[in-house]
Amino acid sequence: MVSEKWVGAVFLLQLCWAGCGFCGKVLVWPCDMSHWLNLKTILEEITARGHEVTVLKFPSFIIDQSKQFPLHFENISVSYEREIAEDHLNKMVNLAVNVIPNQSLWKAARTLQDFFLQLTGIFEGLCRSVLYNQTFMNKLRDAKYDVVVIDPVIPCGELVAEVLQVPFVNTLRFSMGYIMEKHCGQLPTPPSYVPDVMSELADHMTFTERVKNMMLSLFFDFWLQQYDLAFWDQFYSETLGRPTTFCKTVGKAEIWLIRTYWDIEYPRPYLPNFEFVGGLHCKPAKPLPKEIEEFVQSSGEHGVVVFSLGSVVKNLTEEKANLIASALAQIPQKVLWRYSGKKPATLGSNTRLFNWIPQNDLLGHPKTKAFITHGGTNGIYEAIYHGVPMVGVPMFADQPYNIAHMEAKGAAVKVSVSTMTSADLLSAVRAVVNEPSYKENAMRLSRIHHDQPVKPLARAVFWIEFVMRHKGAKHLRVAAHDLSWVQYHSLDVIGFLLACFVILTFIITKCCLFVCQKCCMKQRKKRDTRKKKN
Ligand SMILES: *[C@@H]1O[C@H](CO)[C@@H](O)[C@H](O)[C@H]1NC(C)=O
Ligand SMILES: *[C@@H]1O[C@H](CO)[C@@H](O)[C@H](O)[C@H]1NC(C)=O
Ligand SMILES: *[C@@H]1O[C@H](CO)[C@@H](O)[C@H](O)[C@H]1NC(C)=O
Ligand SMILES: *[C@@H]1O[C@H](CO)[C@@H](O)[C@H](O)[C@H]1NC(C)=O
């Protein structure tokens, strides 16, 4: 017995040492909501491997330090309260669900622009309370971090890293119009076959679709440049005390961890410092809580449908909730609906409302036939992981894009949240549950996702540790970062070669003309002398 215990203890110690081959200090600049859920998986793994993780925390919804989880938190003392952030989140949902679908494209762009300008104001306050608080910055400097892990959706993380002179890793799903990946990270994004993230297009595009894609790409380039980036360029230059841009600073990232993979994404060119780690949070299903398991088992051979619009949409309008409930009441499956709004009057006896559901465990349950989802990346990946076909009700951000991709790959049916009727939703759910092709395609994506040489979480952790061990990953950095726009597109070289060609053509033409003229003149002289003789 005693010896067994010793062996156990020695083994544990060895495990610790193996994990702690190099123990570093990680600083985290997070983003809230689903972004945090994803990042947390990486941080848990990094902590388990013996590194020390400190999260910079602002007033937030789900970044929760009370949970049993060995992370350190540094509170940022900002002037705004959680309620303001909540207010903006609700505004965004309202814009996406009720306002924007009813507007023309240009009006919608204006609405979004106004909204983003308000956000910029909030983010500026956050940035100032970190970067312009010397006590706070000195505290961070004294801690001597080895790497900063940043979600660049909230600006200034990379600016903090730059001021502290610590290498950083970006973790990102996407940025508006791929601005950050394309312009700051130099990721090649040819508009001829890489559809814009807001476009819902596929990779094989007709001429008109390519025109649309190009227009969107230019629109985002121009629009963001004008309204948002100009502000941040100035803020970054002011803070660093030298002229710089937002993009240059973000582009200093050693590694970009992108939260998709070739199961969602169409094949596209990428760079050695871009890792596609989609689905890193996915885990095998655990047993369900007893009450939920009983409900699931009561569905018999028909199985269950899981329904969640994510953590952002808490309550819909009463009209919409009734419409959804009456559609769900007509299917033979039992439905688990994550919803904390008022109970809809048309709720069927087969549908049960939950404030929270163990989504991953439910999707991994053999009785689950379909997943009705808003199309957030985390949920989509859990469905792919477990091979569950989907009904997509996308609203904003990358949701329409994700659902469009799942639809193109035959694993989902899309329903529009703003225009759907009860019948639309019902026929979509019936199709996904009853037509075997949806299940088959979901299983195919699942097999692609599972069959990887190194799992996404292991790759993400490897690259963060790599940056700590080597103080960066400069060997993966393409020289495109040091080229101007003209040089990148080789316009100077093309111009030079064109000029050479034009000059050469000119000289040759001139020479030919000269020779011809000489010849002609000789002949004319001969003719003239012949004429005179005659
Ligand atoms: C940060 O703020 C929370 C309350 O929002 C508090 O419970 C926690 O103790 C604070 N942490 C530190 C390190 O000050
Ligand atoms: C769209 O706007 C028009 C005019 O403002 C209004 O009458 C209509 O009800 C709106 N539609 C929706 C779906 O909100
Ligand atoms: C600056 O940061 C320190 C340490 O976190 C904090 O105690 C202090 O209140 C901050 N100062 C201001 C003006 O916010
Ligand atoms: C959601 O519920 C809250 C409180 O019950 C309410 O104030 C708010 O207007 C509701 N939102 C929608 C879109 O129905």
From TrEMBL:
> Could you confirm whether the keyword Membrane appears in this record?
yes
Name the Enzyme Commission number(s) assigned to this protein: 2.4.1.17
Give the subcellular location: Membrane
Give the UniProt keywords, A-Z.
Glycosyltransferase, Membrane, Signal, Transferase, Transmembrane, Transmembrane helix
Query: Is Nucleotide-binding included in the keywords of this UniProt record?
Result: no
Give the matching Pfam families.
Answer: UDPGT
Q: How does it sit in the membrane?
A: Single-pass membrane protein
Q: Where is the signal peptide?
A: 1-18
Kindly give the PROSITE patterns that the UniProt entry links to this protein: UDPGT (PS00375)
Catalytic activity, as annotated: glucuronate acceptor + UDP-alpha-D-glucuronate = acceptor beta-D-glucuronoside + UDP + H(+)
The membrane spanning regions, by residue number, are: 493-516
Top EC class for this record: transferase
**Primary localization class, coarse:** membrane
Q: What family, per the record?
A: Belongs to the UDP-glycosyltransferase family.
In Swiss-Prot or TrEMBL terms, this protein is called UDP-glucuronosyltransferase
Q: Can you name the source organism?
A: Apodemus speciosus (Large Japanese field mouse)
Q: What is the lineage of its organism?
A: Eukaryota, Metazoa, Chordata, Craniata, Vertebrata
